[in-house]
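Protein: DNA repair and recombination protein RadB
Species: Bifidobacterium longum subsp. infantis
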Amino acid sequence: MTDIYGYAAAAPLYRAAGWMQVIPLPEGHKTPPPSGFTGRSRKPVTDEQVQVWSQATPNANTGIVIPEGVLVLDIDAEQGHRVKADGAKGISELSQELGALPATWSSTAHGIDSPARHLFYKVPEGLAWKGGAIEGVDILQPGHRYSVVWPSIHPSGEMYCWYTPSGSTTSQIPHISDLATLPWKWVDYLRKPEHTTPKPAFNTLISHETGTYDTRMCKAINTFLNKTLSNPASKGSRHDTTLQAVWALVNFAQEGHRGALDAINQLKPRFIAEIAPDRPGKEREAAREWAAILSGAMEKVNGIQSHADPCEQSKIERMLPGEFNELTQNTIANQMGESHPQQVQNVGTTPVQTGSTTASQVQNGSTESYEANKTSSSWRFEDLTQLASGVELPPTPTVFQREDGQGLFYRGAVNDLHGEPGCGKSMIAQIAAAQELKSSHDVIYIDYEDSARNVVKRLLLLGVTGEQIVAHFHYVRPSAKPSSPTSLDGWRETLGYADTATLTVIDGVTSCLAYAGLDSNSGDDIAAWYNTMPRLILACGPAVVLIDHVVKSKDNRGRYAGGSMQKLALIDGISYSANMTKPVGKGVRGTIVIKSGKDRISEIEEHCAVSWDSNGSHLREAARIEINSTNPKLMHVTIARPNMMPSEDRQTKRDDFRPTGLMEKISQLVENAIEEPSQSELFDALKSDGSGAKTAIMSKAIRLLLEEGYVTNRASRHNRACYRSARPYRQIDDPKSDSFVDRMSREEVSELDDGNHLDI
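Structure follows.
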């Protein structure tokens, strides 16, 4: 195939590999494509049309229009054509949130080492996609654009080449079936939100009697079936979605939910009808595929079926069936019996007596929550002797320490870390885990978002040894709630590790709630989940850190994660908002800022920035996490203090407003002016530059520049004040500005005080 050149020779090869919409492009160029054969209303490319094009332009470049079931990520590099951002770096940062992209076939004319290329993936058919994944990364999709491929010649003179998933060049053309499947997290992120109502066929489960639910099924089954039928390819393909749905419904049946088998029966005809057209054996083959799915699901479930439908119980009862509650109590009692035998006699029988709590428990966690979980009933009057004696019972922040030694997470309490996708929440949790592992402390990582491979890779980059990871890092990626029959043994093991762990991370609160059949917008569901997962873990002593998302709309965000405000109300440690102020990734130095929105115990808040955020969000900066990834083998992390300098100008009076943005613009205008401008000339220049500031605010900006010595003024011959630059004003150098950046680098700080930095 090395001698093949031009469209006439290449087109038959592509069509044989399943790429039917092969089009010619001008020789040595990428555009224009033939009219009418691209876009949503494109005409099909027939054998006759290929023959016409091949005879007319045999040496033309070759393009393939993206077919249904295929999506292409067009990644531009920093040196690419007219790009505004480095797409390769952006996709790497996005991978930290969504998980690594699987290796797949790719095409580029820029050489084997260039990150700028087209990545080809299989995706569910019939979905609508965004125009781009991130700045610098476009999406080529059915009905939108095409890919220029081998043996085309790039305008630079280089030839396009295909690369295998291993990264080597090849003379073969990939068949569509050879492409890697895009993970469902990426599918959900890249697809457009659905604004249409479900198709009428989905409404077969709606009961005419109630107007909402099929009365044969309980609430949980109705809700789950509705979601599955409304998005039959949500997990990457109809097969995978149905497979997971059947497994879930079989688990629902095992837990006693009413109507789970009826729901499975509704899925069967729908699955066969949708899959049959794509199968060579049509309905018969689709039926055999369904039988294999159902048989596999039944094999996955063990244990004794519950007789009571959880949906007919209260929220707490649904999360804590009697047998699960008893098992959990016995687990904690057994754990305590191993390390604190003197306390076993108190479990579930009598209130805690004075002096029954060890000093280590007082230091490491909340005794109140520990004892509440030990006893079979929480409605007992507490013994207040130790509190009345002045003993400090609240937990102290000892986990995730800043460079000054101040801890940022409370042990024995639930702490929260929330932010936008890609803001570095998981990275912060893993940095905290690395600290604990380096001190030979046990860490539990309950992960609903990523994979063990990616997390362990990050820990190794943070300097944790393989021996420390194997001995002290306990990682689990559950796909069901702890109380399900298949999860009980694992949940019991988790509580066993929690007895010695100093940190437990639950990465992905929203996903965890979904697996439990709970609604993140329901205060009742949130309260039930807190009592049956985070608080059972914190009762054993570790710092529990929840990783959560925020609502999409910036205007509607509060001080808490997305969903019910009950999330913030139930935090008994500290709640942080995370924001990546400088990009973090390979080869760069980035910064993540965390800000406190609520400190229940108030031992960290006094060590945060003095002032609230200027935007009225009532957040106070707690730390700046500076991440240096320029060394590909080791990540250097500094957990720096916030700016602690008191600033009188941040008080709530309107007269104390400081228009730093206008001050910088005015300073630049004065610096660059050929003749000394007057105040009216400065105002006119600001308005022509698009400033909508009021005259009073512009006047205040000039006055502050005069008072602080950045500009001087004098009277002109027309008796008007004219302004001259004395020294430049920049927001980045102003400690009173939100854009202030300390000029002293972290390397200089290290030279001044080698003992006050954290090298992870």
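Remarks: The chain has four domains: 7-190, 200-311, 397-643, 654-733.
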